[in-house]
Amino acid sequence: MNLLRSLASLCLLAAAFCVPAQEKRVHHQADLSDRAHDDSHGFKYDHEAFLGKEEAKTFDQLTPEESKDKLAKIVDRIDTDKDSYISHAELHYWIKHRQRRYIEENVNKHWKDYDQNQDGKIGWEEYKNTTYGFYLNEEFDDVEDKATYKSMMMRDERRFRTADRDGDGIATREEFTAFLHPEEFEYMRDVVVQETVDDIDKNRDGKINIDEYIGDMFSPESGESEPDWVQTERKHFSEFRDANKDGYLDNAEVAHWVLPGEVDHADNEAKHLIHETDTDKDGLLTLSELLDNRDYIITSTITDFGGMRVDEHDEL
Predict the structure, then answer these.
(1) Long-range contact list for 109-118, CB < 8 A, 24+ apart?
(2) Residue 218: Cβ within 10 Å count
(3) CA distance linking residue 261 with residue 275, whole number of Å
(4) For residues 31 and 98, is the Cβ–Cβ distance under 8 A?
(5) How many Cα atoms occupy the beta-carbon half-sphere of 210 within 13 Å?
(6) Cβ(307)–Cβ(54) under 8 Å?
(7) Beta bridge partner(s), residue 301
(8) Mean pLDDT calculated for residue range 104-109
(9) Among the residues of the chain, which ranges form H helices?
(10) Could you tell me which of 134, 182, 135 has the C-alpha nearest to residue 156?
(11) pLDDT tens for residues 268-293?
(12) What does the CA dihedral 196, 17, 302, 10 come to, rounded to 10 degrees?
């Protein structure tokens, strides 16, 4: 179970916010939601953006009256100037707060798993033995699985060594945060890009061709024609992604694709939520407007209800 938890936590956080569902490779600071942002398939993304991912799960299990009370508490938390309105600035700040809180909670949870000697640091050997020890010992004779896990371990070690800025083989809490959430740290950009290339580059030539690019997003069933969005992605590859027009994506072009750092997705999500729930179009949200749009909000990120536990001690 330790291995499975570890591998799940180490998957790069690549939920697609405010972009098409097929843009699963794009990294956007701390993820607002594990779901793709596609309102045509419901509002689960916005639910988790407003509430927080864990809180959203909790919220879905509440009675209508309980969810109304909880939503009122959240609105009160977001309304920092207590004027009974939620402005874009307040909503933007709240979503950014939820992003930071998610990272902090995620790191705290995994820190307990790996800091075996409780010295406030996590060494590479400590992490490796906790995560992979059983799968690499001499008694584990499933060669195929052993090779797979060994490859994964080498990938983790590369990421760990990069996160370990002073090169002492031991991760401080900040360095371990960079290991778990590399998309949040400028000095980890090369690792994020290289892992993306490694995942998609099937012929191992160190770059991504159009077939590999599409194949990472879409695998047709026998006789199935490509949907329109795949045709659009082919066009994006040739017209936008492949900047030097050589037919491939190199590391620099992949970086421009998967790490669009200039985009503030929390800002975009705040604007999106106001657009969808601001009934009187005054640019502000009230509790009554949010309650009127409860079905939308409980499928949103501001309410990321479990990640958004309304905790009296959760300071903004």
Answers:
(1) 110/5, 110/6, 110/9, 110/176, 110/180, 111/173, 111/176, 113/2, 113/5, 113/6, 114/176
(2) 14
(3) 24
(4) no
(5) 15
(6) yes
(7) 49
(8) 92
(9) 2-10, 45-51, 53-60, 64-78, 88-114, 124-136, 143-163, 173-180, 189-200, 210-215, 228-236, 251-258, 265-277, 287-292, 294-297
(10) 182
(11) 888 989 998 999 999 999 999 988 98
(12) -10
Torsion of Cα atoms, 172 then 175 then 177 then 179, to 10°: -130
DSSP type of residue 13: -
23 against 149, higher pLDDT: 149
Q: Is 66's pLDDT higher than 90?
A: no
Q: What is the pTM of this model?
A: 0.69
The label of the residue with tokens 């179970």 reads 1
Q: What burial class does residue 73 get, using C-beta atoms within 10 Å of its C-beta: 0-12 exposed, 13-18 middle, 19+ buried?
A: exposed
More confident residue, 2 or 99: 99
Read off the tokens for 91. 């909503």
CA 31 – CA 192 distance, rounded (Å): 15
- pLDDT at 305 (0 to 100): 39
Going 98 to 99 to 104 to 109, the CA torsion angle's sign is: positive
d(Cα 197, Cα 153) in Å, to the nearest integer? 17
**Cα distance between residue 164 and residue 170, in whole Å:** 7
Whole-number Å distance between alpha carbons of 155 and 146: 14
Tell me the C-alpha distance between 302 and 43, whole Å. 12
Distance CA 175, CA 188 (A): 10
> What value does the CA radius of gyration of the chain take, rounded to a whole number of Å?
22
Q: What is the DSSP string of 209-236?
A: EHHHHHHTT--PPTTPPPPHHHHHHHHH
Name the amino acid, one letter, at 132: Y
110 CA to centre of own chain: 16
**Contact by Cβ (8 Å): 36, 15:** yes
